């Protein structure tokens, strides 16, 4: 069993308090690692031990005994307050070595308790689990509990190891114009999100320096580069309201990119963080495309090529504007039955042995992505 002791160096309490002199300073007790956020995110791929400790903001004169406990009711409360959908982790899956921690006199940190994840059998690719631990009681000394750090939320997900599609010499068309499929007429979509995990082997080096990720040419197109920006900057183009990322993307690294439109704002996200946005009162988006062949493509544009040289995984289109939290929580996987999910291509397998160029839409809506040739797969892709 792999052991990972999660012990963080505390920030100076002057960061937490604006004190003018020592008389105004109050020493406190809190969970190690919660100085900036009560949430500790952990990815695991095998049974794992996690070390959790408490600490004081100064060396203690007496032994301080701290009682902690898991409080599963806090999961629902956290979800409601933060727009997340974390699941409680069954107590059959984990155990805790000790709930009584002690900060010895002359010290400022306790020995860690051990939270053991005994099995990953309950974990699914799309779910994220939360174990909230709370300081219940403190005895000895006169250090109160820092309220903002009374609870630590251990947010745990399973590392996914899968395949991805190599886009070198390949691209995919999606028949959103087909009214006989899933959601019928998609010519006036009021809200939209497009997202994907991409691995760029190289950015375009010839004019117009564009690498296409997905979307509709001259309408709503997520791409990288242009003649007026760097060839590694993410951009949403088309529809009269372009928006470009502040920072460039990195080659030879897996990156999650997303664009949302809520009817008034277009926002770009990179790895779940907001990069840039623009006011865009453009009205509904026509997912069926414009005239001719300007339809929805993945890995190229309809008219000009502008291929993406790299790999792709976890491509999705939603008929709603995802929040930052929803994007962050779904980087590696989501449930195919998620509300508002129009199409979902994992890009880890072909539709069938007789359709090796087709990547299935997992939502059941029938918007399969059809490549111009059989898909080449890349093994051993990890997320996160």
From TrEMBL:
<dbReference type="GO" id="GO:0004553">
    <property type="term" value="F:hydrolase activity, hydrolyzing O-glycosyl compounds"/>
</dbReference>
<dbReference type="Pfam" id="PF08522">
    <property type="entry name" value="BT_3987-like_N"/>
</dbReference>
<protein>
    <recommendedName>
        <fullName>LamG-like jellyroll fold domain-containing protein</fullName>
    </recommendedName>
</protein>
<feature type="domain" description="LamG-like jellyroll fold">
    <location>
        <begin position="190"/>
        <end position="325"/>
    </location>
</feature>
<dbReference type="Pfam" id="PF13385">
    <property type="entry name" value="Laminin_G_3"/>
</dbReference>
<dbReference type="InterPro" id="IPR013320">
    <property type="entry name" value="ConA-like_dom_sf"/>
</dbReference>
<dbReference type="GO" id="GO:0005975">
    <property type="term" value="P:carbohydrate metabolic process"/>
</dbReference>
<dbReference type="InterPro" id="IPR006558">
    <property type="entry name" value="LamG-like"/>
</dbReference>
<dbReference type="InterPro" id="IPR013728">
    <property type="entry name" value="BT_3987-like_N"/>
</dbReference>
<keyword id="KW-0732">Signal</keyword>
<keyword id="KW-1015">Disulfide bond</keyword>
<feature type="signal peptide">
    <location>
        <begin position="1"/>
        <end position="22"/>
    </location>
</feature>
């Amino acid at each position: 069993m792999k052991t990972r002791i999660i012990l963080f160096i505390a920030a100076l309490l002057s960061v937490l308090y604006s004190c003018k002199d020592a008389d105004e300073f109050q020493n406190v007790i809190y969970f190690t690692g919660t100085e900036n956020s009560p949430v500790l995110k952990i990815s695991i791929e095998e049974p794992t031990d996690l070390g959790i400790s408490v600490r004081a903001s100064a060396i203690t004169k007496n032994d301080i005994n701290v009682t902690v406990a898991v409080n599963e009711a806090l999961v629902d409360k956290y979800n409601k307050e933060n727009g997340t959908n974390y699941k409680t982790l069954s107590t059959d899956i984990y155990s805790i070595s000790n709930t009584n921690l002690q900060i010895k006199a002359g010290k400022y940190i306790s020995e860690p308790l051990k939270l053991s994840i005994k099995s990953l059998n309950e974990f699914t690719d799309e779910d994220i689990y939360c174990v909230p631990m709370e300081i219940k009681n403190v005895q000895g000394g006169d250090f109160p509990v820092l309220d903002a750090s009374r609870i630590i939320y251990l947010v745990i997900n399973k590392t996914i190891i899968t395949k991805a599609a190599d886009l070198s010499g390949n691209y995919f068309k999606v028949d959103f114009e087909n009214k006989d499929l899933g959601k019928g007429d998609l010519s006036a979509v009021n809200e939209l999100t497009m997202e994907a995990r991409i691995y760029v082997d190289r950015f375009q080096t010839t004019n117009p320096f564009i690498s296409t990720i997905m979307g509709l040419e001259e309408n709503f197109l997520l791409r990288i580069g242009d003649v007026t920006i760097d060839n590694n900057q993410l951009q949403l183009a088309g529809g009269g309201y372009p928006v470009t990322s502040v920072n460039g993307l990195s080659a030879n690294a897996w990156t999650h990119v997303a664009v949302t439109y809520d009817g008034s704002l277009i926002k770009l996200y990179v790895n779940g963080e907001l990069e840039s946005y623009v006011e865009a009162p453009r009205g509904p988006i026509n997912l069926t495309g414009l005239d001719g062949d300007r339809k929805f493509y993945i890995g190229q544009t309809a008219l000009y090529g502008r291929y993406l040289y790299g790999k792709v995984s976890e491509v999705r289109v939603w008929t709603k504007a995802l929040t930052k939290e929803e994007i962050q929580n779904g980087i590696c996987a989501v449930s195919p039955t998620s509300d508002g999910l129009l199409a979902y291509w994992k890009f880890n397998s072909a539709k069938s042995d007789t359709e090796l160029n087709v990547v299935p839409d997992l939502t059941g809506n029938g918007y399969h992505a059809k490549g111009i040739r059989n898909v080449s797969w890349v093994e051993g892709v990890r997320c996160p």
